[in-house]
Write a structure and sequence with these properties.
Blueprint: E1 11-17, H1 31-50, E2 67-77, E3 86-96, E4 100-110, E5 117-129
Antiparallel strand pairs: 1-3, 2-5, 3-4, 4-5
Length: about 140
């Protein structure tokens, strides 16, 4: 008996079409292009979490500031991405600390013409919230 197919976990954070310009000459889409997309998806999720209004800040105050990738403890490039694929990055927060969170990213490709969804990559990104001086700051409490 075949195992049941498992789909994406988390929220859809980014969706783009891989183009011919994203390919390496004579090859599939560059792994660098794919990992850049994954880092952007992790950063969007972490940034949204870092900007939340928390009870400690009052009802209208926001903890503002950028986030930065501190580490990538896991990066799995599972299958190549092809030009024309619709590339979908799904994210979820796996772990929350005082100044850093771990964001898991799963990437699926919707293959051109085939309508198949293929898991092509997965990674964990540790994102740190920064203050105006570029130093680590606390993430607001979860809502």
């Amino acid at each position: 008996m075949r195992a049941k197919a498992v789909g994406p976990v988390g929220e859809l954070s980014l969706r783009v079409i891989a183009s011919e310009a994203d390919r390496e000459p004579g090859q599939d889409v560059s792994p660098g292009w794919l990992t850049s997309l994954m880092e952007a998806a992790a950063g969007l999720t972490a940034s949204a979490r870092a900007q939340r209004t928390g009870p400690a800040h009052g009802p209208s105050a926001r903890a503002r500031g950028p986030v930065a990738t501190a580490a990538v403890p896991r990066l799995d490039l599972l299958r190549p991405v092809q030009a024309g694929d619709v590339v979908c990055a799904y994210t979820r927060i796996r772990k929350t600390g005082s100044t850093a969170i771990t964001v898991s990213v799963e990437v699926y490709a919707l293959r051109r013409y085939l309508q198949d969804r293929v898991r092509v990559a997965a990674a964990d990104y540790i994102e740190v919230a920064l203050d105006e001086a570029g130093l680590p700051r606390a993430f607001p409490a979860a809502a």
